[in-house]
Amino acid sequence: MLKGILLSIAASSLFGFIYYYPVFLKPLFVIDIFCWRLLMSFPAILILITIERQWSVIFALFNRIRTEPLFLLGLLTSSFLLGIQMLIFVWAPLTGHGLSASVGYFLLPLIMVICGQIVYKEKLSFLQKIAVGIAALGVSIEFYVTGAFSWETVVIAVGYPVYFILRRKLQIEGLAGTFSDFFFIFIGCFIYFIVSYDLTKIADELITFPIYIPMLGIITAIAFAMYFLARRLLPLGLFGLLGYVEPILLTIVSVLFLNESIPSDQIISYGLIWLSVCLLALEGGIFILKSMKRKIIY
């Protein structure tokens, strides 16, 4: 279990580093950095599939595409939703919106809880009800003070649950779903390069960033590999709880390295949102401890 915990924290740390990474690639455009990341990391995804011996699952995926035309539309939609999130992940730290994007990642577990109740009729626990109430109060204060909630926060907090619900509906969880999403985004990036780039421009950017561009793909692939391995080694509850590490690191990166700060009139709303997430984390920790205690008894 310790190995899984360390792998999960290491994966979150690498994703936190990738959040800052676009700064190294200035003055490239956001879309260019986004496409380089996909083009460099997709081959590593293929290597991961080979190591995991999951090609039979990938072949089954393509066979399903052949027999179910509407399934392809669902996969394209899933890739589009993930592509938007990955694009924001590059755009936010470059444009001074890293902190507001990190709030979206903090709100994500709460929105998932709400979606579970609405879509899957899951019942909210006592702590979950309190957490949702506190988060709702924080969002209300944010609206009252600023007149709006940053669009990137909303897109992350709401877009990811829609993406996860769609993936569950399509039954493409796991490595097959990741391959599908990356595959279609890779095709889109490849087309963008064909239309917008020529060999000279590609060579110029590789010469200008001979280490940073390849390393972007390598680090992304290593982070995903650690993430998948940790998910396999850890109980689902503990794995989900460790997921809170990433938004914490994104906030730290935004404040310490991207020189962003929380406006004084938003401290209360941000604090309430973070408090609500702490309550969810507390409930997850209690559940894990109870589960471990039952295993010891039996």
Task: Classify the secondary structure makeup into a structural class.
Answer: mainly alpha
What portion of residues is helical?
Answer: over 70%
| Helix and strand sequence | HHHHHHHHHHHHH
| Amount of beta strand | under 5%
Q: What is the averaged pLDDT score? A: 85
- Strand count, sense and closure of the main sheet? none
The termini sit apart by 19 Å
Outline the low-pLDDT stretches: none
Q: What spatial form do the alpha-carbon principal axes imply?
A: globular
Radius of gyration: 20 Å
Number of helices: 13
- Give a count of the beta strands, DSSP E runs of length 2 or more: 0
What is the secondary structure topology, with strand pairs?
Blueprint: H1 2-20, H2 30-52, H3 55-67, H4 69-94, H5 98-120, H6 126-146, H7 151-170, H8 175-196, H9 199-208, H10 212-233, H11 236-242, H12 245-257, H13 267-297
Helix pairs in contact: 1-10, 1-12, 2-4, 2-8, 2-10, 3-4, 4-5, 4-7, 4-8, 5-6, 5-7, 5-12, 5-13, 6-13, 11-13
Question: If you had to describe this structure to a student in words, what would you say it looks like?
Answer:
This protein is an all-alpha fold and 298 residues long. The chain is built from 13 helices and no strands. It has helices at 2-20, 30-52, 55-67, 69-94, 98-120, 126-146, 151-170, 175-196, 199-208, 212-233, 236-242, 245-257, 267-297. Helix 1 packs parallel to helix 12. The radius of gyration is 20 Å and the shape is globular.
